[in-house]
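TA notes, week 10

Several of you asked for a full example with nothing omitted. So below is the full record: structure tokens for the whole chain, then the designed sequence directly under it. When grading your own attempts, check the secondary structure regions first.
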């Protein structure tokens, strides 16, 4: 295999959105599909929770990877006040989340972790997202598209729900699931040290 298409890292995520974003950065990677429990600990702050999940995924990837390359893990949560909005379990859950987000500003926290067997570096990116007012019929219509089912906070900014967003302050790519700037800097720093 030539140096040009040599594998550089693994991505510990089955998310097609993260795969697309990492592809945009131009790194050569393979996806590791892992089953890492996502359970918030009692009293755990949202930022600690999302950083721990990213770290857990990256470290699980290191343990499972077929070769000794760095592993990138990431996690995204939606936070409204002191409430963490996970993936909805059903329509009622999604409605509850979207009604809570309606007409308000919330935070999307994405943590990205790059791990080897010796170390794990984590970066946290927080973005403020403002939603316009939503009515019940559009929330129900949105649920029927299937888009909110596997998304934190019951929405995907890169899809149909983009029309609900009146303002964003921070990293758009982090809201989608992988902050491009921070991820690129993390990988570059690691590759330079390893090189």
């Amino acid at each position: 295999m030539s140096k040009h298409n040599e594998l550089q890292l693994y991505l510990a995520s089955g998310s097609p959105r993260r795969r697309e974003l990492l592809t945009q950065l131009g790194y050569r990677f393979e996806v590791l599909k892992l089953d890492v429990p996502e359970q918030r600990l009692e009293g755990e702050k949202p930022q600690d929770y999302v950083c721990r999940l990213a770290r857990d995924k990256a470290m699980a990837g290191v343990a499972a990877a077929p070769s000794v390359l760095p592993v990138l893990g990431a996690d995204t949560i939606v936070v409204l006040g002191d409430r963490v909005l996970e993936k909805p379990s059903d329509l009622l859950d999604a409605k509850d989340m979207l009604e809570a987000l309606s007409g308000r500003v919330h935070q999307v926290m994405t943590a990205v972790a790059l791990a080897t067997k010796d170390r794990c570096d984590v970066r946290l990116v927080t973005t403020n997202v403002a939603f316009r007012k939503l009515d019940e019929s559009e929330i129900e219509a949105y649920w029927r598209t299937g888009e909110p089912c596997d998304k934190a906070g019951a929405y995907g900014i890169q899809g149909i729900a983009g029309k609900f967003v009146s303002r964003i302050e921070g990293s758009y790519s982090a809201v989608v699931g992988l902050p491009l700037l921070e991820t690129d800097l993390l990988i570059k720093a690691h590759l330079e040290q390893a090189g």
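The chain has one domain: 9-192. Use that as a sanity check on your answer.
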